[in-house]
Amino acid sequence: MVNVLKHRFESEELKLLRSLHIRMKLLDQDFKNYMNLEKGFEGEQKYDKWLAENLSGNFHVLNDLLHEYNKNKFQTDSLIISEGKFFNINVKNYEGDYYVNGDYWHTFSGLEIKNPLLQLQRSETLLRQLLHDLGYNITVESYCIFINPKFHLYQAPMNPQFIFPTQLDRFIRKMNNLSSKLNERHSIIAEKLISLHTIESPYTRAPSYSYEKLEKSFYCGRCYSLNNYYFKERSVVCHKCGFVEGLESAVLRCVEEILLLFPNQRITTKVVQEWCKIDSDKTVRRILIKNFNYIGHGRSSYYVFP
Ligand SMILES: [Zn+2]
Fold first, then answer.
1. Name one Pfam family in it (predicted).
2. Mean pLDDT in the chain?
3. What's the gap in Å between 235 CA and the centre of ligand 1?
C-alpha cells in the first residue's frame, strides 16, 4: 500500500505571487517566476495523481521536502521510500519542444533553462549526505520525471534517470515489481526527514507592493478573475466561470490573503469591508465574530485567529 506521509500544498510564495498578479501588474521577471511556480505546482499535482492511481506495493511517499545540508538548501519533489532504496523524484512540467546541446537545455524560442540533470545530481548528493549524517547508509536512486504529455525533447540524452512521458508506464511497472517490505525503521527515517523539513519565507524574493496600490475586491477561487462576480443568496458567483463560493468562505479567503500579504495588518471590519468591497458592515462583522476572537473595544477593536 502506498502511504503518503507528507502531502503537497501550494507554497506561500505561489499564493503570494498569485495574489499580487491578480491585484497589480508584475514586472516581467516576477511574472515569469510566478508562471513557473503555477506550472510547476500543476505538474506536481498531476504527478501525485498519477502516482496514487498507479503505484501499488509497500511504499512511503513524502512530497515536497525542503532540507538544508551544510547551508545548502535542496528540494525533493517526491521521495519514495521502499525497503532497500530511496527514490528521489524531481518532477518537471515542461511543455512544447525543447532541445539539448551538450550540457545546455533550450526551448525552441532559444531560452536556456537549467539542466535538470545537474539539479537532480545536486539534490541526490545532498540527500545522501544528510541521510548519512543521520546514520543511514541507504541507496538513493534519482529520476527526473517529465509529466506533461505535450513535452518533446530533441537530441535527448540516453540517460535512464530521465523518464519521458512515453516511459511513465514502464517506470511504474518497474516500481510495482519491486518487492518491498517496510518496517518500523522506515517510518522512523520518514518521520525524521519530515521533522527536518524547513519552510521558506515567501517574502525574500517578493516584489515590492503596498496596500494602497493593490486593487481590492473578491477574486474567483477557480479562474482567479477579479471583481467579476455577483451575489446570489449567501454566495459569490463568478461571472466568468460560474464558480459558486459561500460568502463566508470567500471572506475568510480574503482575510487569509490580507494576512499573507501584510502579516502585521490588524484585521478590522473596516479593512475586510474595503478589501472585499462589501457595503454591509453587519455581514462582515457576523462572519468575523463567528470565526475569530474579538479583541479591544469600539473603534480600536480587531480580530485574531482563535
Ligand atoms: Zn471564475
1. NERD
2. 95
3. 13
